[in-house]
Amino acid sequence: TEATSVSLTEDIKTVHTPQGSFEGKTLIIATGADHAHLGLAEEEALTGRGVAYCAACDGMMYRGKTVAVVGGGNSAAADAALLARVAEKVYLIHRRDQLRASKVYHRPLEDTANLEFVWNAQVTGLLHEDTLTGVEVTDVISGEKRNIPLDGLFISIGRRPATSALQGQLALDENGYIIAD
Fold it and tell me: Which end of the chain has fewer CB within 10 Å, C or N?
């Protein structure tokens, strides 16, 4: 059953569905999270056509190809390590000069022959025809731009909780996560 609306501000919580309303003192909310996006023009249109958010799900489609991972945390490091086992070349693009990922990832990634770090860089454009053909990256220090030809781009910059429909009904922290007692 799909919830069409909720009333969560009173002691008795109500969930409205096409099959009727359900009431209770307690409600478990498990809305999940969505992948964070870069917010670039045509990012959504290129999703599934060279832009991806899950290396474990889509990585095998890039066997023997050139890909990039955007991010610097544990997820990005794990994605880059996984993709380096199947892709011919992997770029790891991060806006800082070192990874935020746990130290356990650093040395193995540095020792990966087909992985190249692109430090202090942000993806500022998606190059494409019908599918992704590369990215434009901008050096965050110098402002210099360059293009990197790619077959695939994996965006691994975090997740956003799917709680926007609950705003105003529950206390949310600055990142949108529900504050629970």
Answer: C
To the nearest 10°, report the CA torsion of 46, 115, 78, 137: -40
Residues 134, 126: Cα–Cα separation, whole Å: 6
Nearest CA to 94 out of 115, 75, 120 is that of: 120
Total residues found in the chain within this entry: 181
Query: For 96-127, what is each residue's pLDDT tens digit?
Result: 999 999 999 999 999 999 999 999 999 999 99
CA 70 centroid distance within chain = 9
Kindly list the catalytic residues.
54, 57-58
Q: What is the pTM of this model?
A: 0.82
Contact 71, 156 (CB under 8 A): yes
User: Can you read off the two tokens belonging to residue 163?
Assistant: 């709680």
